[in-house]
Amino acid sequence: MTPNRDEGPARVGPAYLRPTPWPLNHGYTNDTRGDGSIVLKRYRGPDRAARRRREHTMLDRLCGLLPVPPLLGGDEYGARLGFVAGVHGQELIEAGQAAPVLRACGQTLRRLHDIDPARVFPDATTHPDQVIVHGDYGPNNILLDPDTFAVTAVLDWEWAHPGDPVEDLAWCEWIVRMHHHKHIAALDELFDAYGERPAWALRHEAMLAQCRMLIDLCQRWTAGAANLWRHRLNLTATWTEPG
Would strands 78-82 and 87-88 be described as parallel, antiparallel, or unpaired? Predict the structure, then answer.
């Protein structure tokens, strides 16, 4: 969610979690590297211990329920994940495949939101209308088969929590509006596949709330990233739903 920055000398950790020489594309908050068979993820920034614990929990409890990377190991330094074949959703959108990518996003999000939150958050008090919210959902965290557009993995679960389904729908829309503006029309595929299109006022407020949360996070990390998210918040505030 936020740009990487050098935090100074890193704790080395166990040998199986030491970074490999190949940083993976599309990583922002964390240091994520792979060699074609495993992926090593080292968490960075504020609350990284809590985020690491949350992602480990989500990958463990969602295994078999949703396409997620296999968790092979990990400790306080990060996670060791099995490599999953697939093409990043944002790359496919830029290659002109926004419609099937966003349809796949909608179908997979419906699968996630149909899972009983109590299976993943057994100790949390949830309301009947709450779902498992990914927290950073969109083509930015989806791998797909480039031939069938089947989702092979949903990535980056460190922000997951019980919440309102509009959070994930709105953020997926935000990713497209912010980074793939010429493909806004393809958002119809997202909502059609999900089976619901919440009112624009609800979606817009959810986008603004997420931007504010990221400003708060970045203020505890790096001023440059906080300024970037202030700019994005101001830009998001000007958006209207196309007629």
Answer: unpaired
**11-47 residue pLDDT tens:** 334 444 444 446 556 656 778 888 888 999 999 888 9
CA–CA separation, 10 vs 202, rounded Å? 41
Partners of residue 40 on adjacent β-strands: 33, 80
Q: How many Cβ atoms sit within 10 Å of the Cβ of residue 122?
A: 9
3-state DSSP of 111-179: HHHCCCHHHHCCCCCCCCCCEEECCCCCHHHEEECCCCCCEEEECCCCCCEEECCHHHHHHHHHHHHHH
Full DSSP string of 38-67: EEEEE--STTHHHHHHHHHHHHHHHBTTB-
How many C-beta atoms lie closer than 10 Å to residue 4's C-beta?
16
Q: What is the set of domains in the chain, with CATH numbers?
A: 15-82 (3.30.200), 87-237 (3.90.1200.10)
pLDDT at 5 over 90: no
- Please state, in angstroms and rounded to a whole number, the distance separating the CA atoms of residues 161 and 171: 14
d(CA 243, CA 241): 6
3-state DSSP assignment of residue 87: strand
